[in-house]
Amino acid sequence: MNIGTVVRYAADREVIEQDAKDTHVLLLLDGVVKVQTTDETGDTALLAIRVAGDLVGEMAALDQKPRSATVVTCGDVVAKLITSGELMGFLHRRNDVFVELIGMINDRLRWANQRRRDFLSHPAAERVARVLAELVQTYGREEAHGWTLGIPLTKVELASIAGMKPRTAEKAFSDLRKAGVVVSHLRRDVLVPDLANLRKFAGF
């Protein structure tokens, strides 16, 4: 917390841009961001969600290569902007933090690998259910009528984490609603009446 500069961003702001050559990282202090990538045809896929306490942009800071994804704010965000030089100097002084950073990157790689395995072995609705169950369990909150994710994401964005195209997203959510494990978007949020039932549907 003693390195970097406090920055504030409004909603729907691109704070890191895919293919850019800057190398700073952002330590999120408050708010939520989404990490997304765009292919050659212009299609955009959501890769991940990051919240307060998470670090974003670390890959470019470590390897000095162009950004691999875009980071967009979901509402107001407060963060610490840390230059690559500041980060590397800190990691040289604190080997214990370097080990923690490796562990964080490893966890993110495991998440990505799990999505690839899901693509091979689960139908669309189950893949969305698996993503939703993990996101809600990690970031959601329990309310009177069930669990809500609390992050403004569209069905297309949620389905894209599971590796599916927009045209498949509507059918996948329709199947989840018919199974009674997900209620449709309420103000761009998702209501899960029974998290245990959703996990069972997902095959966990």
TrEMBL record:
Residues 1-73 form the Cyclic nucleotide-binding domain. Coiled coil: none annotated. PROSITE patterns: CNMP_BINDING_3 (PS50042), HTH_CRP_2 (PS51063). SUPFAM superfamilies: cAMP-binding domain-like, Winged helix' DNA-binding domain. Residues 122-196 form the HTH crp-type domain. It comes from the Bacteria. InterPro entries: cNMP-bd_dom, cNMP-bd_dom_sf, Env_Response_Regulators, HTH_CRP, RmlC-like_jellyroll, WH_DNA-bd_sf. Keywords: DNA-binding, Transcription, Transcription regulation. This is Crp/Fnr family transcriptional regulator. It comes from Saccharothrix hoggarensis.
